[in-house]
Amino acid sequence: MTVAAIGYLRIEAQDNAAWMEFGTQVLGLMEAPREDSAGARFLRMDAHPFRFMVESGTSDRLVATGLEYRNQGDWRAVCDALAGAGHSFSAGSAEEAERRCVSGYISLQDPSGNTIELYYGRKLDYVPFNSPVGVQRFVTGDEYTGDTGFGHAVLPAAQTEDTIAFYTDLIGLAVCDDLYPPIPDSRVIFMHADNPRQHSLALYNQPHPAGVVHMMVEVDTLDEVGLALERVKQAGLPLLATLGRHVNDNMCSFYVLAPGGIAVEYGYDGLLVDWDNYTPTVSTEGDLWGHEYSFPGVND
Asked: For residue 298, what pLDDT is reported?
């Protein structure tokens, strides 16, 4: 009953054409043409059929986070654990599972109201990844590390302690770092899955209007980060944070605001961890250097 990786995000966008332009021409992801009855569009970064589903809507927000289990047995065990603990969930229909390219899934909300989709049996697409702007590779795992997911996401969790317990006791994640940044009343709890990526999901102890504090994608060279930063500048998109390096996961990255305001971290050199020889940490600083933050409407 352990989460293997963070598999995908479902994103609602008021202008999904602008989001797709951002995803392909700025981030360097590949559009995955698919028929969809709801008009969603899809972005690939590896052999998974998509990592981001972009759905048209009346707001700009995260709709759901997909967490993957290695097999049906692990998935059924977490379903049984959730039911035994009194958590209600809905089983996805065969049609909705096919839309997500999975063998089966359930949907539910965590104690802070974030929607998660727990699934197994992702159906891969072996058409080679081809970035429209020439990104050679996104870091999502290999034959040595296994699937490490698309990157990570940080979710708002006002009901902090209940939400931590939900993910660690029932869902199958484990805390790797507890950050108390030098910002009043702020706390970020980082959690890892059963893969070497330092964290796959994190919780922030405050609400957020977009339903996600940020999402992260990783490339495998610093030059790719620099080229992406140039594309951000050329597109005239607002930077949320300048280039910097984090303390806990070693990520060298910047943060950009996607159309509609969802923050995306674009990074390189994330830490890979041997969990059998790791002791969870408590941090009081988020960055070794850089990451000068600028919040639109606040720092103006």
From this structure: 45
**Phi, psi (rounded to 5 degrees) for 71:** -155, 170
State the chain's mean pLDDT as an integer: 96
Cβ neighbors of 299 (< 8 A, separation 6 or more) are 293
The token pair at 287 is: 């960055």
CATH number at residue 41: 3.10.180.10
The C-alpha atoms of residue 84 and residue 78 are separated, in whole angstroms, by 10
Helix (H, G, I), strand (E, B) or coil at 241: strand
Could you tell me the CA-to-CA distances from 114 to 59, 154, 155, 272 in Å, in that order? 16, 11, 7, 27
Q: What is the pLDDT of residues 274-294, one digit of tens each?
A: 999 999 999 999 999 999 998
Q: Report if residue 300 sits inside a domain.
A: no
- Overall number of domains in the chain: 1
Three-state secondary-structure class, residue 204 = strand
pLDDT at 296: 65
- According to the model, what pLDDT value does residue 154 have? 98
- Cα distances from 147 to residues 87, 111, 217, in angstroms, run 28, 27, 14
